Amino acid sequence: MARRVTLAVGVLVVAVGVAGTLAPAVVAGVPLSASFIVAVGVFAALAALRAGSRRRKIEVDYADLPGDGPAPEAARPPRALGEDVVEDLETVSHPRRRAQRDQLRTRLREDAVAALVARGNSREDARAAVDSGAWTDDTLAAAFFDANTSVPLATSLRLSLRGATFETQVAHVAAELDRLTEVSA
């Protein structure tokens, strides 16, 4: 309920701001004293602090990743997906960790290619399938490597608002790699 009220107030404030920008006469009669402006600023700062503190308390629920159990080398990617992926994901979760995100993306791409090669594809065909998104039916996993794969708008907005797009895509890629390695085992 509180989120809806906050959303409604935010939408109303933005609408008044846009109206004031496009047609200043609409808000010309509203007195804006210095104390009112300070009060709005304090309210915005408190709202931002509240949102930040709530976000820090949220636990990210990661997908179950394959264990470290023994398996034939040909049936599994060269590196076992498991705790190391979860640890890597925890270190790259911050938006400013672009280089680490790129390294994790490259590593998972190599694992996807290796999983397809283990299923009998040539390395070139496997690379082409991963690059084009054809390696999986999961749109989030496909979009992780292929920017041209379209994710449904509702899913994209939901993930963007949660701020977990990268983490969710990694979880989908890991689940798909697990499925691929189980099928070929």
Molecular structure report:
The chain is mostly helical and 185 residues long. It folds into 2 domains: 2-57; 73-184, no CATH class. The protein has helices at 2-22, 34-57, 83-92, 98-118, 123-132, 139-145, 153-162, 165-184. Helix 3 packs antiparallel against helix 4 (98-118). The chain is elongated.
Question: What is the structure about, briefly put?
Answer:
By secondary structure, this protein is mainly α. The chain has 8 helices and no strands.
Hey, roughly how much beta strand do the residues contain?
Answer: under 5%
**Major sheet, described briefly?**
none
Helix content: 55-70%
Query: Which word captures the global form?
Result: elongated
Cα separation of the termini: 49 Å
Q: How do the helices and strands follow one another from N- to C-terminus? A: HHHHHHHH
The number of helical segments is 8
- The number of strands is 0
Task: Name the features.
mainly alpha, 66% helix, membrane, elongated, transmembrane helix, 2 domains, 8 helices, transmembrane, 185 residues
Topology (elements, then pairings):
Elements: H1 2-22, H2 34-57, H3 83-92, H4 98-118, H5 123-132, H6 139-145, H7 153-162, H8 165-184
